[in-house]
Sequence to fold (114 residues):
Amino acid sequence: MRRSCFSGRSAHPDGPPTARLRVRVTPRAGADRPVVWSDGVLALRVAASPVDGAANRSVVRMVAGLLRVPPSGIAIVAGERSRDKVLEITGIETAEVATRLSTVLPPEPGRAYD
Fold:
């Protein structure tokens, strides 16, 4: 079983909450769309190609929309040049990330990637 890459602590003790989210990205897809939320990994398809950060910008915009947070509150902290990324989301509790993703994209056990 994979471990979720969630962290509910802020970098600063008095700062806003932060959560980390593992994401698996398929670039050059027909359209931007979430695929599956499973085992703590969000799988996404983005139409943009991974050139000059275009796919990363699409990922940030899509995750911001799914979680209803501003794109400025999302940072790619690992995997900037990889399909497997770790995003840090500022201003939202860890449990709320899982709740919001489960609401818009119910989990499929045993299927982390499309």
The longest helix spans residues 54-67. Helices lie at 54-67, 94-104. The two ends are 17 Å apart (CA to CA).
